[in-house]
Amino acid sequence: MNDQIRVLVIDDQEHHAQAVAESLAKIGYECVVATSGQEGLRRIENEDFGVIISDLKMEGVDGLAILRKAKVELPHAEVVLVTGHGDIKSAVTALQSGAANYLVKPVDIGELRIVVEKAAEKHRLAQTNRELQKQIDEKFGFEGLVGNSPQMHGVLDRLKQIAPTDARILIQGETGTGKELVAKAIHVNSPRRNKPFVPLNCTALNENLLESELFGHEAGAFTGADRLRKGKFEYANGGTLFLDELGDMPLTLQSKLLRVLEDGQVYRIGGNEPIKVNVRVLSATHRDLEDAVAKGTFRQDLYFRLKVVTIALPPLRDRREDIILLAFHFMKEFSQRYGRNVTSIAAEIRRAFNTYDWPGNVRELKGVVESMVALDRDGELGIDDLPDATPLRKIPPGDGEVMGQQSLIGQPLEVVEAYYIQKALELANGNREEAAKMLKIGERTLYRKIKDYQLITKKRSTPVS
Questions:
Q1: Do both 183 and 272 map to the same domain?
Q2: ω before 106 within 30° of 0 (cis)?
């Protein structure tokens, strides 16, 4: 079983490297040969390998340097070092530094294959564990992006497609729609999940500070630069850099950002040496960048570089069927955080939430619910829990239940279904067996729909309308 395991053989004695590679290729391994330590480093930086076999003693870059590089660039790869009889002590040191095993020259082919197979099996096991974690991430990694509307289903489907890739993504949407949350979800569900996620708001700093934040600076580069400072690109190396409100970036910095995207290297302010970086760039803006390009305030070439894929987040007022679902989600989150036992939302509050246009979008809704949970005394979010300054207090109370049913007109089938399942649960006082009988569906079907629609099953629970 040598599936998907690539082996890198590094040795400055080419005949020995070729002999090792050929012996492993005969039993099914895909082998790549590097005939110097420097070439080996380049391969490790740019390619993926499951097992690395390196000579310990080489000119310039030795096996220990290869081991250190592999631990940074390919942390899941297994490294086997090859040493002479007189270097056993160095080999033991290498084992203590993280090498999987070592072999003594002249290498016995049978022993080589056994050692490599053990290393490959260890790599496969780690790969399997990562795949299982990926499945968990795919199931739970987007849980912060709550929504059952067609718009959000479309966003989630698109995110699941592009998150595992390395494509640059431009996230567009009004302020408060959750652009950074989407960027984090993309990172968590990508192969870069174990490397840094670094956010930077482009409107929070003036041009000089923003340049320093992005690219770093050398000591003495300008007044106050008393020591070397790495920029966000360096800090995010191997991971994801999220540039929020990119549309507000000055034109001079846009050209420097474009150069980094094209060359994959940065120059610190005051520095002359390029620093290679491997960073996935995600960006977001509430501005119309096409309009900005037309007006000359945003570079067209940078715009095309950043929008390999575009994600458009709808405002909350355009997905009203998600409002109560989000409200329950935040109610649960803040109840746990503040140690409160808040289990329901009053009908008049549900109506007010559904009627309000939420100019601040999800962020505003989250803030309102947090405040209400913090103020609540009776376990139900009601009018008395609303913050004093919120415009929600100006909405007439009306008949919440009647309005809740009227709001179903024109809604998707799943919203209507969720509403009446919730009502059956209320009438059955949370008894799922009784509710299933009322609805004339099987209990398993009911359990599945409760989970799918994230319904509340406790006594006095409220419908998702």
A1: yes
A2: yes
Number of structural domains in the chain: 4
| Integer angstrom CA distances of residue 174 from 26, 44, 168, 258 | 58, 41, 20, 25
Identify any residues that bridge with 34 across adjacent strands, giving them in sequence order: 10
Dist. CA 48–CA 119, nearest whole Å: 15
Query: Strand pairing of 229-230 and 216-217?
Result: antiparallel
H/E stretch holding 24: helix 14-25
Domain ranges, residue 236? 147-314
For 330-377, give the DSSP string. HHHHHHHHHT----EE-HHHHHHHHHS--TTHHHHHHHHHHHHHHH-S
Residue 268 lies in a domain: yes
* Whether the Cβ atoms of residue 365 and residue 358 lie closer than 8 Å to each other: yes
Length of the chain: 465
How far apart (Å, rounded) are the C-alpha atoms in residues 393 and 349? 10
Q: Give per-residue pLDDT as tens, 307-318.
A: 999 999 999 999
pTM of this structure:
0.56
Report the percent of the chain where pLDDT is more than 70: 88
**Pair (126, 201) in one structural domain:** no
pLDDT in the model for residue 410: 52
Assign 412 a pLDDT band (cuts: 50, 70, 90). Answer: low
The pLDDT tens digits of the residues spanning 157-174 come to 899 899 999 999 999 999
Beta bridge partners of 243: 200, 283
Instruction: Kindly report the average pLDDT of the chain as a whole number.
Output: 85
pLDDT at 367 over 70: yes
User: Among residues 314, 340, 357, which one ends one of the domains?
Assistant: 314
Q: Is residue 141 part of a domain?
A: no
Q: Are 240 and 197 in contact (CB under 8 A)?
A: yes
Whether residues 390 and 320 share a domain: the answer is yes
pLDDT digits (tens, 9 = 90+) for 76-100: 899 999 987 666 677 777 788 888 8
As a 3-state breakdown, the chain gives helix, strand, coil percent values, each rounded to 5, of 50, 15, 35
pLDDT at 372: 96
Does any domain span residue 17? yes
Q: Are residues 323 and 222 in the same domain?
A: no
What contacts 288, CB < 8 A, 6 or more positions away? none
Distance CA 36, CA 41 (A): 9
Confidence of residue 75 (pLDDT cuts 50, 70, 90): confident
Residue 218, by phi and psi: left (phi above 0), alpha (psi -120 to 50) or beta?
beta
CA distance 465 to 326: 11
Instruction: Tell me the one-letter amino acid at 410.
Output: G
